[in-house]
Amino acid sequence: MEIDSLTALVLAIPAIPLSLYTCWSDLRGMRIPNGTVLLLAGAFVVLGPFLIPFETYLWRLAQLGVMLVLGILANAGGLVGAGDAKFVAAAAPYIAAGDLRFVLALFTANLLAAFATHRLAKHSDLRRLAPDWESWSRGRDFPMGLALGGTLSLYLLLGIFLGG
């Protein structure tokens, strides 16, 4: 992994709670609040200059911009929800460029696990724990925030324990 342990630890302090809130919010109401996304991006903007070289910091902010534009286009094409696109953009600067392939593999595994777990819970007695969650009744829709927030959290946790 290209992210070092200390950087991952400091970034994880705001990012993991915000990511977990994203998971819960998307499960409960099928939406990712703008405030959560803004806090996630803002935490990186504030902490980043103290953790990584300034040139790298600027490239990471560029990642945010690129992913926001791609997310807007994907949303306009009906491929992803607006909240999902905004979360991906806000999470992008947390990812070291050299870890992109790893993060894509981590996201793929996490997406499969999140989808299977959500669908199993939806059709089991576990559903009674949160009977009013909108994600249970949205037909084929899936709360992608569950996989996105989980992926960022796992990436940072792995960075803490395995980082370079």
Structure characterization notes:
The chain is mostly helical and 164 residues long. The chain contains six helices and no strands. The termini are close together. The model has no long low-confidence stretch (mean pLDDT 96).
Distance between the termini: 6 Å
Q: How many DSSP-defined strands?
A: 0
Radius of gyration (CA) equals 16 Å
> Which parts are unreliable, with pLDDT below 50 for 5 consecutive residues or more?
none
Strand content: under 5%
Shape: globular
Tally the helices: what do you get? Answer: 6
SSE-based structural type: mainly alpha
Largest sheet: none
Mean pLDDT: 96
Reading the helices and strands in chain order gives HHHHHH
Helix coverage percent: over 70%
SSE arrangement:
Blueprint lengths: L4 H25 L4 H18 L2 H23 L5 H10 L8 H23 L22 H18 L2
